[in-house]
Amino acid sequence: MTKSSDQLVHDPKGGMDRLREIMRRLRDPETGCPWDIEQEFRTIAPYTIEEAYEVADAIEREAWDELKGELGDLLFQSVFHAQMAEEKGLFSFDDVANTMSDKMVARHPHVFGGENRDKSAEQQTRDWETIKAAERAAKAQQGVLDGVAIGLPALLRAVKLQKRAARVGFDWPEIGMVLDKLTEEAQEVAEARDTLGHEELKEEVGDLLFVVANLARHLDVEPEEALRAANTKFERRFKGIERRLAAHGRAPEQSTLDEMDALWEAEKADERSQK
């Protein structure tokens, strides 16, 4: 017996069908939620990006109890986009799932096809890139850099662009050359600080950040992950400064830079002693 819409919405074991029905009801033009009804792809996209970062944040903090909810929030974003697409006659949620399944099967012939699994991870990565290149060619994306999503975080997109260029030999052959370029770009920023306008200075800083991303790539470091860790470290140490000042009934705005620098060094020393 098929459950009614109300039964499904309130079924705690309803799974994916329940979530999709809730989304359909939220978007119902007559009985749905006014906010959800007003949304479109572009207005929901920022929330999709935010939810992906919250998943990454939960993993970074090893907050496994929170991860289930964050993954659910991210899944809901896919359901939301698919519902809007279905309303426009573009595609359905099943089409999304089937497209992804087809892609994974096609990209893993060593698992789902007749290819031999006895190959290194490096060889599998090369095979993966070959398959993706064929997919891009089928989409008439002929340029080496075609298909690198514009909406990616800037550091991540920089690395992807650099990896694409490196495949055809446009890359520094050794890390020393990257470090030399980093020094050069830093010097250009220093020189531009007092001689160029804001837009030109912004361009120089962008060049510097692009080389930093390239350095991270050559060191096999994920720059987004490294910067998140640096942010976490900064936050932890600055809170340590606040805690030390609060112990004397004061706040950072009542301190001096020299004092806060000294407290910062004290926090670093405490961290080293605890390792």
TrEMBL record:
Gene3D superfamilies: MazG-like (1.10.287.1080)
MF term (GO), any: ATP diphosphatase activity
Catalytic EC class: hydrolase
Residues annotated as domain NTP pyrophosphohydrolase MazG-like: 39-112, 179-238
Top-rank taxon: Bacteria
Enzyme Commission number, as recorded: 3.6.1.8
Disordered as annotated region, ranges: 245-275
Reactions performed catalytically: ATP + H2O = AMP + diphosphate + H(+)
Keywords in alphabetical order: Hydrolase
One Pfam short name: MazG
Biased composition (Basic and acidic residues): 265-275
Single GO biological process annotation from the record: dUTP catabolic process
Entry annotated with the keyword Phosphoprotein: no
Tagged with keyword Hydrolase: yes
PANTHER family reported in the protein's UniProt record: NUCLEOSIDE TRIPHOSPHATE PYROPHOSPHOHYDROLASE (PTHR30522)
NCBIfam families: mazG, PRK09562.1
Family: Belongs to the nucleoside triphosphate pyrophosphohydrolase family.
Protein name: Nucleoside triphosphate pyrophosphohydrolase
Organism (species): Aliiroseovarius halocynthiae
